[in-house]
Amino acid sequence: MTGAAPALSPEQVIERLRRPVPEGAPTRGDHDLNPGMEPAATLTPAAVLVPLVTRPDGLTAMFTQRTDHLLHHAGQISFPGGHMDPGDDTPEETALRETEEEVGLDRRHVEIVGRLDRHVTRTGFSITPVVALVTPPFETNPDPEEVEEVFEVPLSFFLDPANHQRHSREFEGRTREFHAMPFGDYYIWGATASVLINLYEVLRNQP
Q1: Is the pLDDT assigned to residue 202 strictly greater than 90?
Q2: pTM to 2 decimals?
Q3: The domain 10-20+27-204 is classified under which CATH number: 3.40.640.10, 3.40.50.720, 3.90.79.10, 3.40.50.300?
Q4: How far is Cα 165 from Cα 142, in angstroms, rounded to an integer?
């Protein structure tokens, strides 16, 4: 961690996120770094909340570490979220509901400020990332069946391109490349790191 990225205020985040995602905005996914790797033929709509916590020392990003026994992405670090239920009218509703269920974070502390680009996964999900500001004080009560830990990382860490890495591993007989942003003992990679790259581009590449 270099600490080279200047901090952003909540007001700057709101200004840069509160813009419509244009029609035809790019769809992100494994194919970004792996040409020819096509997403699943059938995609399940899903959403995640990208919670930015307004701490006195600066914004932080909140994550969950999933339990080891889950069917999808066991043990991995992710944003709270899941597939859209029939009663969810919007991705925002899905993200808020899933965050309450997984983390126990009451939505009264959450202010939605915008969306990032849609992200498709090899496992068949079409994810809408919903960015929000979270105002302390608040309590979390993680669901022990789904969440091993809830933790925060300074947003400035992800806004420093020196902390953006590309890793690779063998998967199903081929080399697969992916984004990674290790922080201490936390290995943040895959779809979560890709969403963070998108967030970096929105927050840093605008005047």
Answers
A1: yes
A2: 0.90
A3: 3.90.79.10
A4: 29
